[in-house]
Amino acid sequence: EVENPNADQEVEENLDRIRPDLQEAFDRREAGHDINRPEAVAKRKKRGHRTARVNIEDLCDEGSFIEYGSVVMAAQRRRRTEEDLIKNTTGDGMVCGLGHVNGDLFTNEQSRVMAMSYDYMVLAGTQGKMNHAKKDRMFEIAEQNRLPTILFAEGGGGRPGDTDTSGVAGLDCLAFTYFAQLSGLVPIIGITTGRCFAGNAVLLGCCDVIIATEDSNIGIGGPAMIEGGGLGIFTPEEVGPMDVQVPNGVVDIAVKDETEAVSVAKKYLSYFQGTT
């Protein structure tokens, strides 16, 4: 038998110790949480709006939401540092995952949903490369598993600032196709508040029901596109306000705020979840 010469130097391993690489993973996942973005959260509150995470937390049964793709960043590594991207673009402007809604009334299977929200605190809720990739995945899962889908659509549409792309005009995504394939297959609920323009408005318009707060503005073209097309200069609040979109029939259910919007969405969804 050979004696271990380092026996006296051995120390007991601390099994509760978090390895540096695991801690880094935890930090990346938590970077996009509201508690770590106080300035952005304060701006939302000042405008009278809730954050994407608060809305999803209110929508889903407590503890049921499982997030997908929380650590992705905007595809802008060619012009921004990784530290900047982690701090300011974690999630790439989209919070999405699986959860349960109305689980107190229906079975575990009946209450399953796909919940997703553009995050206006990240690049104004615009649609970027990784943002689209997340939607591709989530809509595919919703189709495969026949999951009702709830979309919070506030945001500014396609994002021109991504640099880490294939150079095909940002059209190499299937999100819009996948979303259209959900039509008639599962209930699709759209909710918006504030500004909802361009690609965000396209997805909203594909929903079975559109719920909008009284301060919403909905338009396929935002102010920049309208001005670029030579149609004049308008503020965001002048584009598709509710006193136009509700009488036009664009909005199905007008509500006061996001709290009421979530409540109405849960009630609407209950009509398709089964008998109680």
From TrEMBL:
<dbReference type="InterPro" id="IPR051047">
    <property type="entry name" value="AccD/PCCB"/>
</dbReference>
<protein>
    <recommendedName>
        <fullName>Acetyl-coenzyme A carboxylase carboxyl transferase subunit beta domain-containing protein</fullName>
    </recommendedName>
</protein>
<dbReference type="GO" id="GO:0004658">
    <property type="term" value="F:propionyl-CoA carboxylase activity"/>
</dbReference>
<dbReference type="Pfam" id="PF01039">
    <property type="entry name" value="Carboxyl_trans"/>
</dbReference>
<dbReference type="InterPro" id="IPR034733">
    <property type="entry name" value="AcCoA_carboxyl_beta"/>
</dbReference>
<dbReference type="InterPro" id="IPR029045">
    <property type="entry name" value="ClpP/crotonase-like_dom_sf"/>
</dbReference>
<feature type="domain" description="Acetyl-coenzyme A carboxylase carboxyl transferase subunit beta">
    <location>
        <begin position="45"/>
        <end position="273"/>
    </location>
</feature>
